[in-house]
Design a protein that fits this description.
With about 150 residues, this protein is mainly α. It contains seven helices and two strands; from the N terminus they run αααααββαα. The mean pLDDT is about 85.
């Protein structure tokens, strides 16, 4: 089972790499000229988690706090995120999406979804897709439980 898990991890990593490459090379989405992939990822993370501190964002993205600070400054200037003092701890700023941030993320996600749908159309049958979804829901559940 250890070898199968290792292969699964390697395949997942490769799919992420090739998938990202496919999206970046083959999609001409105007907003991607205005925002870096890392900035879009910040929007995705905030959409998934809600309010986060810059330290939490840095940890999730696996980068230093200075890198997050630079990204956040640009996203605040573009009105995609806002920074507000935590009500319980005034030393902490909580970052969240603005309405415009949600809109930009929706456009980006729609383009990615359309690209993936076109790429896999007639390549994956409904049963395979259902199994894929079931497996990824289980993985997500395990990861979410481990974080708590």
């Amino acid at each position: 089972m250890k070898d199968q898990l290792q292969e699964a991890v390697e395949l997942f990593e490769e799919v992420m790499i090739y998938g990202t490459e496919h999206v970046v090379k083959n999609l001409d989405v105007p907003i991607w000229k205005d925002y870096s992939p890392e900035q879009i990822q910040v929007l995705k993370i905030l959409s998934a988690y809600g309010h986060l501190s810059s330290g939490q964002l840095a940890e999730i993205q696996g980068v230093h706090k200075s890198a997050i600070s630079t990204r956040l400054k640009k996203l605040v200037e573009k009105d995609l995120v806002r920074s507000e003092r935590d009500l319980n701890d005034q030393r902490i700023n909580r970052i969240s999406l603005t309405v415009k941030g949600h809109e930009v993320l929706a456009v980006s996600n729609a383009a990615i979804n359309e690209s993936i749908e076109n790429l896999f159309k007639d390549q994956i049958d409904e049963q395979e897709l259902e199994q894929f979804i079931k497996t990824f829901r289980k993985l997500k559940s395990i990861l979410v439980m481990k974080e708590r």
